[in-house]
Amino acid sequence: MWEDTELRGPLLCALCFGNANYKDETFCDLPNCVNDAERVAKQARKVSDNAVVKVERNLPDKKAMIQALENFLFRRPPLHTPRIVLIYFSGHGIQAGHRLFLVPTGFAGPNSEVELNGKCLSHEEVFEILERFHTSNRTAAAEGSFLPSRTIFE
């Protein structure tokens, strides 16, 4: 009965983002964010011997963040689908109305919500990517929470 569990893939796949060194003075550097991401990754590795864990550090733009997330989720054989996917982000976040954004290290202070949408990774976009992964791999639905470091454009 349990012999086929390895075919389902690892128990846990965890992608941990640590954005600490922000280029724009609007966002102070967060020296502990990379350490936080590495500590979460270390704990994730303890969950299972076959856990797949990756840490991404100081991603400069939205494109790099999306690419890291998609590469992590979609670059594995379909027979090796993880049972749990953890996405952890430590860095600046911005709330604009009801929307939440993860801030890449190269982002200059926002002038509008349109600029935020074009240059920061929204929680909706993260969940859309996770939903695509869920649909293609029949994994559990995604849930999560974000705690923004500032609220603007209410």
Structure, explained:
By secondary structure, this protein is an alpha/beta fold. The chain has a single domain, classed as Rossmann fold (3-Layer(aba) Sandwich). The chain contains four helices and seven strands. The protein has helices at 33-47, 62-74, 113-119, 123-137, and strands spanning 12-18, 52-57, 84-90, 93-96, 99-102, 121-122, 150-152. The protein has a four-stranded mixed beta sheet. It has a three-stranded parallel beta sheet with strand order 2-1-3, sandwiched between helices. A hairpin with a 2-residue loop joins strand 4 (93-96) and strand 5 (99-102). Helix 2 (62-74) runs parallel beside helix 4. The model is unreliable at 1-6 and 139-145 (pLDDT under 50).
Summarize it:
The chain is an alpha/beta fold and 154 residues long. 32% of the residues lie in helices and 21% in strands. Residues 1-6 and 139-145 have low confidence and may be disordered.
